[in-house]
């Protein structure tokens, strides 16, 4: 055999039955015999120089120090979790997920890397790359929201399908997507950890971009808590309300508490909630919806 001939993918048996059982539909047997190159749903050792990077990779920046630390770990422990690739042609594969492990393995000097081989078209490649990116622990809220938006627009998913794909409730997905309605300056502040998602969700309830930016600047300058921001938003909403002549001479002892409840419920449900009560403590809660999908979203929150 010529020295220039690249090694074929070879099944590996050192990963144990546990990992094999996690890969749905794979053909892992724990044996070390060779497998054909066009076989999918298998775990195999693949030469690193046979693997192309993922053109749909949503991450554009990898921390070099973190990569080098991972490379040192790989030198000692090896690859604990195989990367995932798709088979293109003879001795050629394309990375689906596991870019950090792939890059760190190259730094560590590995010539082969364990990989789970599966079949995927371009849309599936994008979907899997985005979902793996969402599952990272160090993503900020805007990165998650943008990934959700790409899954909806580029992978033609509906919100309920998206929730199933990423293992999140539809309300959670909706709350993240609402962050993209904020002006760019506030999105950047959220991305850079100048404010938390709690701050951002309160700011969404302000009716104009100008007021949102004014409150955002005050939040950053004074390092206000989420509760304080909710209070500021509530005061802005009350200031914008015209006085009702029929209730001018009445005093409701629950007003302050009800406004706080309204703000919190509106943030939780992602829609404007009305809470009313008289001095005897009797009242009602109104939850508006504009479509069947919106109603189903609200019912999900209520666990109905």
UniProtKB/TrEMBL annotation:
CDD domains the record matches: SPO0J_N
Gene3D superfamilies registered for this protein in UniProt: 1.10.10.2830, 3.90.1530.30
Sorted UniProt keywords: Chromosome partition, DNA-binding
Pfam families (UniProt xref): HTH_ParB, ParB_C, ParB_N
Protein family: Belongs to the ParB family.
Name of the molecule in the record: ParB/RepB/Spo0J family partition protein
Keyword Oxidoreductase: no
Span of domain ParB-like N-terminal: 44-134
Keyword Cell division attached: no
